[in-house]
Amino acid sequence: SVTTPWWCDAVIYQVYPRSFADADGDGIGDIGGIRARLGHLRDLGVDAIWMGPWYPSPMADAGYDVSDFRDIDPVFGTLAEAEALIAEAHETGIRIIVDIVPNHVSSEHPWFTAALRSGDAPERDYFWFRKSQSMPTNWTGEFGGTTWTRTPDGDWYLHLFTPEQPDLNWEHPAVRAEFEGILRFWFDRGVDGIRIDSATLLCKDPALPEVVDGEPHPFHDRDAVHDVYRSWRRVADEYQDRALIGEVWMPEVERFTDYLRPDELHAAFNFDFLGCAWDPALLRACVNRTLEAHATVGAPPTWVISNHDVTRHVTRYGRSDTTFSFENNLDGTPVDLELGTRRARAAALLTLSLPGSAYVYQGEELGLWENESIGEDRIQDPMYARRGHTRDGCRVPLPWSGDEPPYAFTTATPWLPQPAEWKDRTVRAQTGDPNSMLELYRAAIRLRRTLSPEFAWLGLGADVLAYTRGADFAFVLNLSGFPVPMPEHRTRMLASGPLDGDLLPQDTAVWLRL
Ligand code: ISL
């Protein structure tokens, strides 16, 4: 029988290792904590876990500054523990995806320390060092500010992120060979997939021109990057059933789908929902664009409503339309959390019933909101100093049980402060409560397996988002300002909120058996 590859319709749960669960009592999450809480992911019913970076790192950018891709940072545990986690997850029926960061390494990676040691160290060529009186280019970094830092001997080196994250030179064969080795290292340990960080940024124009509108970009989405992924695909194809999943921030659809050609990546994150306000026309356009784009290349659509880089969607959807943004707000813009939660429940039924693969960022299944009141002295995110935005508010440790922080996340002080109002949002408090966000996710993840792959829009008016999946299932989301009638149905499978007799209230979604 023909089965679709697992990544085509998987629910993939993003574990942010620092904030999942702390087993060793230092206030920071670790592999021991994840192993101890694997039951939560089994009960949730997810197909795979994407582990944020867990490698040795000075943690200048929460582990996205890697000093050794073939080991585990002691704060998270050991390689043996990682192997045990992979084995236990597999026994539970859960696949594992690891996060690879190929654009840059840590400034404490042995390649970079060797490069710094002498002006003619061969390792200099693994990076972008330049001799120059002044800054080699006027590029702006991804976190704002300059992309060049001067070494004590006067040369400059390139970093699209922080100075602690020097960019690798992907023109160099040794860099390419090294990463193919790293992929094999993790595939040999049984991991089922690779999440590729900053996938569009790897290749640079060696002439280092300025960014000019209408000219090929010097470092974003250059044609050369596709060569890299073609060679990675050949590595993945040496194994069975392994997926390459790219973090591809690419507003232009044709350039986005280039990454999904048959000999490149298996899937890429679709970030359209992150920037999409709670508006019927925008949401519909986002679904259409995504389905059409993926159909042209035959790749599985993906759906992402939150991740570790953007404001949690309970908070985004609780902002008024005029203040909508996926960046963190520390200026006291009011947020209606009740409204945001109602919409987040409807959004869960939306993303979990669209065809393709859905991502769940840890904590969204609990209805967590952004912590927008982290004191300046506790902010860790290096973006804050450069842009005045912090991503810390969505990275706060999970609440497991209990009435107050640290909610059994740790026995110590959590590395980021948890809100005092999360006692109703713990896993323990929500388990068994049929009206909880957690039980909604559990039921939706269980029931989505019964949905036919056939998708078709149902015309119920411009302000109602409705579609069928095959002949016997309908999704309806009411985005109008008043209650609307639902299609004739046999059974109400799930509802995101209370119904009004036969009417569907505003901001409410249902799954119907026709
Ligand atoms: O955050 C962004 C926009 O506000 C993106 O452009 C972001 O820089 C991009 O998604 C890359 O993010 C990834 O790599 C970064 C790391 O800080 C992020 O956490 C990671 O998801 C550097 O490795």
TrEMBL record:
What would be one Pfam family of this protein? Alpha-amylase
TM stretches of this protein: none
Gene3D superfamilies assigned: Glycosidases (3.20.20.80), Oligo-1,6-glucosidase, Domain 2 (3.90.400.10)
Q: Which CDD domains would you find in this protein's record?
A: AmyAc_OligoGlu_TS
Tell me which residues make up the Glycosyl hydrolase family 13 catalytic domain.
14-395
**InterPro entries reported for this sequence:** GH (IPR017853), GH13_cat_dom (IPR006047), O16G_dom_2 (IPR045857)
* Keyword field: Hydrolase
Which GO terms fall under molecular function for this chain's record?
hydrolase activity
Keyword Hydrolase in record: yes
* Alphabetical list of PANTHER family matching this protein: ALPHA-AMYLASE FAMILY MEMBER, NEUTRAL AND BASIC AMINO ACID TRANSPORT PROTEIN RBAT
Family per UniProt? Belongs to the glycosyl hydrolase 13 family.
Recorded protein name is Glycoside hydrolase family 13 protein
